[in-house]
C-alpha cells in the first residue's frame, strides 16, 4: 500500500517506535503487542479542552478496554514532564508518550489542521501489529473512544 502523504491505513503494519513515557521510561510499540491490542491515539496538546476531554473519555473507559484485552497509549509532542503533570492532574491510568519533534506522528502520517495544529487520529493495532481501524476527527471526540472499543471487542480472543 503506498504510504505517501496518506499515512498509515487499515491493513498496514503499524510502524514500530520507541518513545519516553510520562515516567521517563522508554516504551517500544512492539513490546506492547502480542498479548493485547493497542489503541494508539495521537492528540494535539496536553491541557487543551478537546485533548483533556478525549483523555478523560479514555480514562473513563480504561477498565472496559483492559477487560477487552487492549492497552490505550496517547501520543503528543508535549514533554515527559508536561505529560506527567497532565496524567496526574486528570488521573490518567494509561501511558502517554512524548513525541517531541513529531517524528512518530510523521511516520504515521497524522495530518495537521490548517498546517499548524497537530491532528487527532486513533489507531487500533491488533496483536500482530496490523492496523485494524483508523479514526480521524478533531471535533467528534467521543467517537474516538466508542469506535476503538467496538473494534477492540471484535478482536478479543475467543475463550473456551
Automatic annotation (TrEMBL):
| GO CC terms of this entry | cytoplasm; thylakoid
Q: What does the record give under GO molecular function?
A: thioredoxin peroxidase activity
The cross-references to InterPro entries, in alphabetical order and at most eight, read: AhpC/TSA, Peroxiredoxin_AhpC-typ, Peroxiredoxin_BCP/PrxQ, Thioredoxin-like_sf, Thioredoxin_domain
* Superkingdom of this protein's organism: Bacteria
- Per the record, the major location class is other
Task: Give UniProt keywords alphabetically.
Answer: Antioxidant, Disulfide bond, Oxidoreductase, Peroxidase, Redox-active center, Thylakoid, Transit peptide
Compartments in which it is found:
Thylakoid
Bilayer-spanning residue ranges: none
Entry keyword Nucleotide-binding: no
Residues forming the catalytic site:
51 (cysteine sulfenic acid (-soh) intermediate)
PROSITE patterns for this protein: THIOREDOXIN_2 (PS51352)
Q: Where is the Thioredoxin domain?
A: 8-157
Enzyme Commission number(s): 1.11.1.24
Its BP terms in the Gene Ontology are: cell redox homeostasis; cellular response to oxidative stress
Under SUPFAM superfamilies, the record lists: Thioredoxin-like
Indicate the secretion signal residues.
Answer: none
The reaction(s) catalysed by this protein are: a hydroperoxide + [thioredoxin]-dithiol = an alcohol + [thioredoxin]-disulfide + H2O
Give the record's family classification.
Answer: Belongs to the peroxiredoxin family. BCP/PrxQ subfamily.
Function text: Thiol-specific peroxidase that catalyzes the reduction of hydrogen peroxide and organic hydroperoxides to water and alcohols, respectively. Plays a role in cell protection against oxidative stress by detoxifying peroxides and as sensor of hydrogen peroxide-mediated signaling events.
Quaternary assembly:
Monomer.
Q: What is this protein called?
A: thioredoxin-dependent peroxiredoxin
Source organism per entry reads Nocardiopsis aegyptia
Amino acid at each position: 500500500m503506498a504510504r505517501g502523504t496518506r499515512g498509515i491505513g487499515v491493513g498496514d503494519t503499524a510502524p514500530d517506535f520507541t518513545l519516553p513515557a510520562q515516567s521517563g521510561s522508554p516504551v517500544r510499540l512492539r513490546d506492547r503487542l502480542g498479548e493485547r491490542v493497542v489503541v494508539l491515539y495521537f492528540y494535539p496538546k496536553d491541557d487543551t479542552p478537546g485533548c483533556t476531554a478525549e483523555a478523560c473519555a479514555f480514562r473513563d473507559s480504561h477498565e472496559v478496554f483492559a477487560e477487552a484485552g487492549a492497552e490505550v497509549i496517547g501520543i503528543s509532542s508535549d514533554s515527559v514532564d508536561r505529560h506527567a503533570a497532565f496524567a496526574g492532574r486528570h488521573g490518567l491510568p494509561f501511558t502517554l508518550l512524548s513525541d517531541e519533534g513529531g517524528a512518530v506522528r510523521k511516520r504515521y502520517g497524522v495530518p495537521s489542521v490548517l498546517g499548524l495544529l497537530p491532528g487527532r487520529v486513533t489507531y487500533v493495532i491488533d496483536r500482530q501489529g496490523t492496523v485494524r481501524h483508523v479514526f480521524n476527527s478533531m471535533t467528534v471526540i467521543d467517537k474516538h473512544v466508542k469506535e476503538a472499543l467496538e473494534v477492540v471487542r471484535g478482536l478479543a480472543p475467543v475463550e473456551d
